[in-house]
Amino acid sequence: MPASRSTNGTEGATRAGRRPRTLVLAAVAIAVALGFAAVVAVPAATDWYKNRHDESASYTSGKEAKADRSSVPRWLPDEAKHIEYAMRTTGGDRLLKATLPAASPPATCASTTPSPSPHAPGIRSSWFPREAGQRPTVRCGLYYAYMDGHTLYAWQANADWVAANRG
Question: Using omega within 30 degrees of 0 as the cis cutoff, is the peptide bond preceding 105 cis?
């Protein structure tokens, strides 16, 4: 004779009691996952969105930089070393850092008493000083620039680039 189970109604009640607890645990797990996604994914997506048009490159010489990118300024000496270059592909914002053979800017650069008032750099990079916008001493084409020892820091502002390219 087959074994029979006796049900007295308690098994059904136990299952019913587990259902709300399972739903609560599932809701908490989903909330934790969404919270984690908000903390990690949203800032990453925002950073990507803001910087998706930024490009950067490093070069060993000014000659190499100018050969690789037509947007690197022609006034940069071929003999310049340790070039760092950043640009925004949707406009004229540019950053440039270079070690020059002499502790003076290229000869084609003109001294300036920031007139017009220099526009602050429109992009940022870890190798470019944040306070650079307050330090220009020369103008090299559309670039504002200054020297720190043998290191040239220069930037081109989008507003200047737009004004120069209206035509």
Answer: no
Q: Would you tell me how many other CB atoms lie within 10 Å of the CB of residue 43?
A: 10
The neighbouring-strand residues paired with 85 are 57, 96
Q: What is the pLDDT of residues 71-89, one digit of tens each?
A: 999 999 999 999 999 999 8
Give the SS3 label for residue 11.
helix
Q: At 30, which helix (H) or strand (E)?
A: helix 10-51
- CA angle centred on 145, ends 114 and 77, rounded to 5°: 140
pLDDT at position 3 is 54
Query: Scanning the structure block, which residue is given the tokens 């737009």?
Result: 162
Encoding tokens for residue 98? Answer: 């270079």
The amino acid present at 68, given as its one-letter code, is D
Question: What does the pLDDT read at residue 34?
Answer: 81
Do the bridges between strand 81-88 and strand 110-111 make them parallel or antiparallel, or are there none, so unpaired?
A: unpaired
State the DSSP code for 133.
G
Between CA 63 and CA 90 the distance in angstroms is 25
Grade residue 47 by pLDDT with cuts at 50, 70 and 90.
Answer: low
- The one-character DSSP state at 130 is G
